[in-house]
Design brief:
about 140 residues, mainly beta, Immunoglobulin-like, 2 domains, 4-stranded mixed sheet, Ig-like_fold, Beta-gal/glucu_dom_sf, Mannosidase_ig
């Protein structure tokens, strides 16, 4: 499954879902547009049924949903339980550690103004050298 968004400045944003499996999919696609401070400008939930081996247009969103902001000043987050999202959405973060440290998650997407809690443990039970942890943006 793949979610993708098509958008040209001055035109609507169109959300599509691609189902490349051999069976139909019932899902709910969530769409959220936020400013960089995390204020929600637009949100919608779209129930969908996408037939096997097909592409379906989920919805069209007018640029009016941006509340007068240029598209490069907002974050578009499109997701569902079943699909991988290919949209200009949010910052991807990763955590690099030494081989002795284990993180509950080492690659994740973050929306503006959100917090993610990561559990970190040393495989040998030693104290965590937090100064060695590095968070990067992809």
């Amino acid at each position: 499954m793949l979610l993708t968004v098509d958008h040209e400045v001055g035109h609507q944003m169109t959300v599509y879902m691609v189902n490349d499996t051999l069976s139909a999919l019932d899902d709910i696609v969530s769409i959220e547009i936020c400013d960089f401070s995390g204020n929600v400008l637009y949100e919608a939930k779209c129930p969908v049924r996408v037939e096997a081996n097909s592409v379906m247009q989920i919805t069209e969103i007018s640029e009016e949903a941006l509340n007068g902001r240029p598209a490069n000043e907002v974050v578009l987050h499109v997701h569902s339980e079943s699909a991988y999202s290919r949209a200009p959405t949010c910052k991807s973060r990763s955590i690099r550690t030494t081989s002795e440290i284990q993180c509950s998650d080492n690659f994740f997407d973050m929306m503006p103004n959100t917090t993610i809690r990561i559990k970190v443990k040393h495989l040998s039970g030693h104290a965590i050298p937090f100064e060695s942890l590095r968070v990067s943006t992809v």
